[in-house]
Amino acid sequence: MSETQALVVGAGPGGALLSYLLASRGVETVLVERQSDFDREFRGEVLMPSGLRMLAAAGIDLEGVRTRNPKRFAAYFRKRAVVDLEIESDAAAELPRIVSQPEMLEHIVCLAEGTGHFRLVRGGSVRDLLSEDGRVSGVRLRTAAEGRIEVGAQLVIGADGRASVVRRKLELPMRDRGAPMDIVWCKLPWPESWPGGQVRGYVGGGHLLIAFPAPDGLLQLAWVILKGTYGELQKRGVEEWVHAMADHVDDEFAAHLVANCNAISRPFLLDSVTDCVEGWARPGALVIGDAAHTMSPVGGQGLNVAMRDAVVAANHLVPAFLHGYDLEAAAARVEPERRPEIDEIQFLAAQPPRVVMGQRFFHAWIRGLVSVLVRSPFVRGRVGSGLIDKFFFGVTDVELRV
Ligand SMILES: Cc1cc2nc3c(=O)[nH]c(=O)nc-3n(C[C@H](O)[C@H](O)[C@H](O)COP(=O)(O)OP(=O)(O)OC[C@H]3O[C@@H](n4cnc5c(N)ncnc54)[C@H](O)[C@@H]3O)c2cc1C
Prior knowledge:
Elements: E1 2-9, H1 13-24, E2 29-33, E3 46-47, H2 49-57, E4 67-68, E5 72-77, E6 80-86, E7 97-99, H3 101-113, E8 118-122, E9 124-132, E10 135-143, E11 147-158, H4 165-170, E12 174-176, E13 181-188, E14 198-204, E15 207-213, E16 219-226, H5 229-236, H6 238-246, H7 251-259, E17 265-271, E18 275-277, E19 281-282, E20 285-287, H8 302-323, H9 327-332, H10 334-357, H11 361-373, H12 377-393
Parallel strand pairs: 1-2, 1-11, 2-8, 5-14, 11-20
Antiparallel strand pairs: 3-7, 4-7, 5-6, 9-10, 10-11, 12-18, 13-16, 13-17, 14-15, 15-16, 19-20
Helix pairs in contact: 1-3, 1-8, 2-8, 6-7, 8-10, 10-11
The chain binds flavin-adenine dinucleotide.
Flavin-adenine dinucleotide binds near residues 32, 185 and 290.
């Protein structure tokens, strides 16, 4: 059995960034990723300044990684434009960016490989945890090349996403913060009449459709629908559900959707989950990112909070690994520092779907009120900017200290 100091399960943004931070500070790190390339796993692509700042603090630039900068935001209520804003700042670090995740992750693991303290096991699927004297002591995994192998570690970090094996094997208690929605996710050609970099949100009739530029130049659509209704739509086929989407947007965009029905690529359904583990650390193990707190896609926070978890984890773990401090005490300090931000973001992100999708009489009344209020520059300025700050920059201060 091979041995390492840190073993990270899952090379999403949380696991990849933490692995790079540990390895670049001299901690022997093994990162196990079940996919053989980063294209295969789905993840969102909007990075907020709160996440971009973590990359910058780690010294990771995005040169060579395809990105798009949103330049305009338009909101439609019952097919009518209610907001059309030019996004003003030129300071790229102060605005969200749409970043190709396969390219960003490849870039981070490539940097980690250059540290001399890092090994990536691609196509390695962690199946179980090893334990010794009541603490986690490593993992059992399967790779195509080597079959079943075991790797011992001083600390196993589960960054293996919403269906985390580490979380399941540790039997960590979870709090469900359910959001009643499914999301249809697909791409289609960019509409010629739309300005470059435009982001649009369509609200109305119990639906929410968000359209934004993907890093590959296509238009990314996220269609948020009441949980369970997609099953029926799926039976009716792509053409019919494109028509259903078209019913909720302005005429010009509806015509574009219908005309490009056959050009729609990679449509799939995502079951939106929001939950949080109570107690992220156990002797010999820690969970971060979606494995600790699966984020709803609303607000584009999951990638960002996963990277912020990684930075906080590195702050506590690097000194413990390098100077022989108590590793378990260090791992236990991550959750108390991260929970205030996670709790607030999960609460805030749950509100728009409740209002947009809610079927009670007062939800319709709130929708009408919101559509009037968002037209007011005063409300947009006072209420909007406070909320936007939290989604853009985070709720708590997170700084890389190692
Ligand atoms: C529709 C939708 C849209 C979204 N859009 C955005 C957005 O725009 N912006 C945003 O910030 N967030 C968004 N999110 C959320 C975001 O994708 C996640 O929160 C984020 O990817 C979590 O990062 P992570 O590193 O914790 O885990 P993940 O990115 O889920 O990575 C986990 C990794 O672990 C690997 N793995 C799993 N099991 C094992 C195993 N047993 N052994 C080895 N490896 C394993 C997986 O292959 C995967 O690569 C969206 C989510 C959804 C559902």
